[in-house]
Amino acid sequence: MENPGLPEMNNNTRQRMVRRISPAATVIIAREADVDSEDGLEIFMLRRTSKASFAADMYVFPGGRVEGDDHLHSYDDLREGPNPAQAAQQAAIGNEWRGFWVAAIRECFEESGLLLAYDSNGKLFEYENDATAEKFNRWRHDIHEGRCSLADVCQNASLKLAVDHVHYFNRWITPQGRPRRFDTRFFIAEAPMNQRGEHDQKETVDSLWISPNDALKLHAEKKFGLMAVTRIQLESLLEFKNLASLSKARLDARDFPVFRPVLPA
Question: Is there a domain that residue 146 lies in?
Fold first, then answer.
């Protein structure tokens, strides 16, 4: 029976109803462009499946929800950083900084196969041969399917998460009225050597390295689907001519914008 004390809602009101906001973390992975390229930077991007309930067919950066286990204090023994130079980043993320950093690295590994970690010698982890690459490829799918955790992988392979290599960039909160809403912390990291990255063939069906300039040009030609937030992030990267200038800017940053877009009435 309808409650006579409640006003009738039209379709527009229903669309504007407040929905639960899920915390999320996304990583923009950058590397130097090929020497023959006119652009100094390339970004790793994934194309989501057309069957996805969110951002279907869009090209995105690796990322996803922050899970409860990402906040576990057990990761304190399995990470390097944040270091003192990242104090401003840590403060900007807030008290739950551990969970966002761990989620960023975990989601990046699950979605792209790129693992931001240090080996037992303190060097940024690389796949030394095809057999190692295949083993870690199995592990990334095991994490996604819940058969093991990122902590299990670190312990089995004597790795530590490279938190000090992953720098906070900004924060985006999905506007009210969207069917799915996220409170996403975006990070930027330099790609590990000898890790090429590859889509998971489940949630994502294609992957590539592309310059921000080329991605934006293809998007303008309607050949490269981008959400508004992804397009704006790519536009912000155009000012950086190479990886060194991008890395320095992130280390020197003290301002971490929070974007709260509003849908037009």
Answer: yes
